[in-house]
Design brief:
Number of strands: 33
Organism: Equus asinus (Donkey)
Keywords: 2Fe-2S, FAD, Flavoprotein, Iron, Iron-sulfur, Metal-binding, Oxidoreductase
Largest sheet: 6 strands, antiparallel
Radius of gyration: 26 Å
Strand content: 25-35%
GO biological process, one term: execution phase of apoptosis
Strand order of the largest sheet: 1-10-9-4-3-2
GO molecular function, one term: oxidoreductase activity, acting on NAD(P)H
Helix content: 10-25%
InterPro entries: FAD-oxidoreductase/Apoptosis (IPR050446), FAD/NAD-bd_sf (IPR036188), FAD/NAD-binding_dom (IPR023753), Rieske_2Fe-2S (IPR017941), Rieske_2Fe-2S_sf (IPR036922)
Length: 603
């Protein structure tokens, strides 16, 4: 693959006509300028969609018998900028007053069910109090992540100084609304070797990219491939709820993917990407051509390199099966966690009620020291010690000892020996980009995929021409959107985008400094921006990085991006707060006094 650029060949330049916005979803990404005649069968029986098949826009109130209307308050009961949860027939509604107008919305965040009345209302948006998802109060639409669904918006009217809300009973019960999406209208039987959009990786970035394309009206073929045996699932829950079953973690049911023509290839490993011929090769030899490509491979966990690393019952938490097996092995026995980062500490917290003993081994002096600072780290450490967790700090694992092939003891470099029946390793991760090394797609020295805005001349750089050569040698001036427009989340190869844990990207409020932020929320945002730029909408990342963790019924929420050097922390509180560009303050909870005293709230 290393020689794929060695011999220049005559180049045929295809022109992509940019259609009006309402037509773009039908045609934008189709290589032929019309619906692709190809079909693909993945994960079950292929379904055929027809040109006339569309998602009907659901009427909010199908019939009066299915609705409920009631007066919920007096107009003077709420001041501007206030929110209130009100009873309405079968359920509750979030009533909001801003700039003299009343709005009624679903009262729970669709992500994890947080009560939005405890969130932040600012500039026409309400922000979830737990994980920062943001919703437009005029439409109910999700405008910032995490999460996939929006809120229902209910009708409000004012009569005789009273506020009336009219709502569908079904909407009151569901408390979530999936945005209207296009359906796939182009597949046909017999040929499975080509797709319009290929997405490598089915985490948050990959799934959101696919959904965003459908939401924006794109109706051609989308293939989503993943190493996992499961459909996309909520990976952050793996270390917080190790008992959770795959079906409980699923982000969307199987029927969703069938309904919207998003084809998912499970246990599918891409081994080669040929950017010149726009083709990928899978481990089993299957080849798939693409028009646009999103790389969202995520990361691979680091493993121990010590003596005995091959013994049984040593895990990295990567899949639901890993997590479930750890819990089974730890019940009433001795568990050792190597690494006091987020994954390691979440696992340790969960196992305290299951295992006979839980020990944590960490190279640093305090947990989270590099990320949250020493003060917060010590407060967290004290909270864990109060819950029977034993710490072995400033040391490493030198050997894993086995009895009959199964783990029995963990030997530390400090010469201490810790009894262990199961060991979880959480010492960091590396980008899963090894398959790209010979592809021509740029990787930095750590293996991350740099993405940036591509300025004029991207076509010439790809073909080895100068910009003047593009104008002279091309049959007509290059008018493809990726050749002429800035493209956020695009790699050095036009038409190839990247998102998620494996990328570095320019963060606007850090003066466009390239950063890697492996947060669940950020992966959502990058997947959406990548999809919008595939459609030449020139979107940019405007979200504030946000992460959360939960341990012993308490939560720690962190907004922003670490500014100081390793080990220096973030000052007394260990966190920083930022005002979101579209409104709604990001709030971080985690002062050491609160963590030690139990004042951080719960999720």
């Amino acid at each position: 693959m290393g020689g794929c650029f060695s011999k220049p060949k005559p180049v045929e330049l295809k022109i992509e006509v940019v259609l009006p916005e309402k037509e773009r979803g039908k045609e934008e990404l189709s290589a032929s300028g019309k619906g692709s005649p190809r079909a693909y069968q993945g994960n079950g029986t292929a379904r055929h969609f027809h040109t006339e098949e569309r998602l009907p826009a659901p009427h909010p109130y199908p019939g009066t018998q299915d609705c409920v209307e009631a007066a919920v308050c007096h107009v003077k009961d709420l001041e501007n900028g206030q929110m209130r949860e009100v009873e309405l027939g079968w359920g509750k509604v979030l009533l909001v007053k801003e700039n003299g107008e009343f709005h009624a919305l679903g009262h729970k965040c669709p992500h994890y069910g947080a009560p939005l009345v405890k969130g932040v209302l600012s500039r026409g948006r309400v922000r979830c109090p737990w994980h920062g998802a943001c919703f437009n109060i005029s439409t109910g639409d999700l405008e910032d992540f995490p999460g996939l669904d929006s809120l229902h918006k209910f009708q409000v009217k004012i009569e005789k100084e009273k506020v009336y809300v009219w709502a569908s009973k079904q909407a009151l019960q569901l408390q979530r609304r999936t945005k209207v999406m296009a359906k796939c209208i182009s597949p046909s039987a017999g040929h499975s070797g080509s797709t319009n959009v290929l997405i490598v990786g089915a985490g948050a970035a990959g799934l959101v990219c696919a959904e965003t394309l459908r939401q924006e009206g794109f109706s051609d073929r989308i293939v989503l491939c993943t190493l996992d045996r499961h459909l996309p699932y909520d990976r952050p829950k793996l270390s917080k709820s190790l008992d959770a079953q795959p079906e409980q973690l699923a982000l969307r049911p199987k029927e969703f993917f069938r309904a919207y023509g998003i084809e998912v290839l499970t246990e599918a490993q891409v081994v080669t990407v040929d950017v010149r011929n726009k083709k990928v090769v899978f481990k089993d030899g299957f080849k798939l051509e693409y028009n646009k490509l999103l790389l969202a491979p995520g990361s691979s966990p680091k493993t121990l390199s010590c003596k005995g690393k091959e013994v049984e019952n040593v895990f990295t938490i990567r899949t639901p099966e890993d997590a479930n097996r750890v819990v089974r092995l730890a019940r009433g026995r001795n568990a050792v966690v190597v690494g006091a980062g987020f994954l390691g500490m979440e696992v340790a917290a969960y196992l305290t009620e299951k295992a006979h003993s839980v020990s944590v081994v960490e190279l640093e002096e305090t947990p989270f020291r590099r990320f949250l600072g020493e003060r917060v780290g010590r407060a967290l450490m004290k909270m864990f010690e109060n819950n029977r967790v034993k710490f072995y700090m400033q040391t490493e694992v030198s050997e894993l000892r086995a009895q009959e092939g199964k783990l029995k003891e963990v030997v530390l470099k400090s010469s201490k020996v810790v009894r262990a029946d199961v060991c979880v390793v959480g010492i960091g991760a590396v980008p899963a980009t090894g398959f790209l090394r010979q592809s021509g797609i740029s990787l930095d020295s750590r293996g991350f995929i740099p993405v940036n805005k591509v300025e004029l001349g991207g076509l010439g750089r790809l073909l080895g021409w100068g910009w003047w050569e593009v104008q002279v040698r091309a049959p007509v001036p290059p008018t493809e959107p990726w050749a002429l427009s800035p493209q956020m989340m695009q790699t050095n190869i036009p038409g190839v985008f990247a998102a998620g844990d494996a990328v570095t990207f320019p963060l606007a409020w850090r003066n466009n400094r390239k950063v890697n932020i492996p947060h669940w929320q950020m992966a959502h945002a990058q997947g959406r921006v990548a999809a919008q730029n595939m459609l030449a909408q020139e979107a940019e990342i405007s979200t504030v990085p946000y992460l959360w963790t939960a341990m012993f019924g308490k939560s720690l929420r962190y907004a922003g991006n670490r500014r100081l050097g390793p080990g220096r922390g973030q000052g007394a509180s260990g966190v920083r707060g930022y005002e979101h560009p579209r409104g709604g303050a990001e709030r971080a909870i985690g002062r050491s006094e609160e963590l030690a005293g139990g004042g951080t709230g719960t999720t």
